[in-house]
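S.,

Sequence below, as promised.
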Amino acid sequence: MGPDALREGGVLLRLSPERGVPLAARPCETGHTGGRAGTWGRGIRVAAAGASAQQESQRQLALAEDHERAAHEARQTASRYGIAAVTEKSVAKRLAPLTAVGYHLLPDRGWPGSRRAQVDLVVVGPAGLFIVDTKAWKDVTIAGGHIFRDQEDVTGDLDSLADLGYSTESVMVEIGLAPGEVHSVVVLAGRKGISTAVGTVEVVGELDVLQHIARRGQRLTASQVDAVLSLALSHFPVLRAPAPVDATIIEPVLPAQPETIDLADLATDDEIGEAIMAGILAAPIEDWMSFLHPDQAKLVRRSFTGPSRIRGAAGTGKTVVGLHRAAYLARSRPGRVLVTTYVKSLPAVLSTLLHRMAPEVADRVDFVSAHAFARRLLVERGIRIDLDTKKVDAAFAAAWREVGLPGILGKLDQSTHYWKDEINHVIKGRGITSFEPYADLARTGRRRQLRIEQRRAVWELYVAYQQRLAGVHDFSDVVTLAEASLRIMPLEKYSSVIVDEAQDLSCSMIRMLHHLVGNEPDGLTLIGDGRQTIYPGGYTLAEAGISLAGRGVVMNTNYRNTAEILDFASTMIAGDEWTDIEGPSPLDAAPLVARTGPAPVVESFGSRHTHDAALVARIRDVTREVGTELADVAVLALDRYALAPLLVALSAAGIPTVDLDTYDGTSVAAVKVGTVKRAKGLEFKQVLLAGVSSGLLSGAAPTEAAALERHGLQRRELYVAMTRARDGLWVGALS
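The prediction came back faster than expected:
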């Protein structure tokens, strides 16, 4: 082979004598080379001189551009990691003082489900679990639920952190940690005075992060912290070693110096100490605010495709789940959440509890009774109402005197209470405005059977009553007007409505509330227990036009009462006929009870004086026990008339009291005093049920239908009162 030729990859190439580069060759169209035989080979023709050199030059230039681009990207990446390293260490350093008071800092943990992604810092301690991501962002503004870097909307950059918080909740509920105790937090490096939220992600300045965590106080006990920490260590694994660098560039590219941030001390030692001390001294919240039974915690996060129902016997934690669910929905959904019930005093208590439990979302949840909501809606819409209870009573008294008493109804039962309940709960409570629907109505919950002529007499009484109202409205009218207004003009304000003690509401109330959210997923949640119905009449969800379609959950573990208290209370409703809002009484299994304690005490008295003296002595006895204060005691009665002498006796004994009518859930060193109706939804360590008729306790039931109905309602009230007690129950009977 001559000096001007070489073999490359099995093809014989000729070298240019000037540059020594190979000339391209391709198959010859004629099959003849035109060169020396044996030098080029048959079928090869030489391309124009210099073409291959040009192609190689272009290739090398393109390769150089790729290298430069890769180097630039590598420098940027190195800079970002360098900044991240500085900011992450700075945040961890600022939070280090928390370790002295029971917090655990887990830096650089693996992102669950990812092989390489990392979580900057996980904090576990008395204030809950915090997933911390640091951002060295400049020119940050937050407005309208969005976060911007300069003019760029970077809200989407927080989505993965929000998703991680959500998935971590689902892991932590397995041990009962309430969803609200898991926090996704973005810390803005070097910033101060920022404390807000973007969706479910909390955004705070680096100078504020220690106070942000510490100020939540003692949410978890030491043993609960240990349980959360143990699960967090497995959920957030140790981060694996970084991926090996693919070094394909011949010339090494030196990393750029990481950008540094001049961070002043974020807080003085005194400020740090004050923040930590404030957290230590903060009154611990009740266990149920941060830790639930895993079944309860899962139910809080459960999603339903339409209206749903949570039912269960007394003490199963329905109200607790409803309150946590309100916070969860407010945190995770747009729009406001409405929590409502029949009892006018309970919303204020629940509001106070939510402000302690989840202060970050408390301003997005409205607590109001169903009646108050209806009135507020009508006032806001300029619909005139004249709610005057004295005029209402006078109108009914006149109608009864002129129409009811002289006719069939007066001969059947001269008690105005029964017929007033029939009109308010059975007729107006359903929004019935013509006789035909009433004539065929099943009258759920009413034991006395009414023939057609008797129903016609009731209707005549109803018409006479309405005529005598003459523009005045009763409470049922207010609800009917509100429901009609919502039917015409929906209120697009609420994304979720939670109804506690739903069995107490009228059919019209339920329809009114249903209009707010319709059949939207997680829109309407009904919570209640038919066994605790204490108002006459009733309804079924079918009458209200609501279908649960299998979206019902039964809670069957009693977390409140001792077995002794529950067994005794259950005798009040043994054999009782009751109707659930879903239809016939369900045959639920007896609730499971884990706690035991002393047997309830029942004492009989022949006089009010000896009864009241024994009640005062009982209060003094139970408050001598370790862990029981005056605030843990409730004195309940079936009506307000029975309360008056009790208040006199307690005042004379120097025992401070607070009326459940005005109680708003704020802790006060005083005995709670009120009717059983006002105690619904609440619980107390010690309950004293005062002034109970011995005949009502004995269980001897009357035979007449109307009297039997009243007897059953009163016995159910006793059941409700007794099941308010956690540790001890005393019943004072008067013969």
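Residues 447 and 709 are 6 Å apart (CA to CA).

Coffee later?
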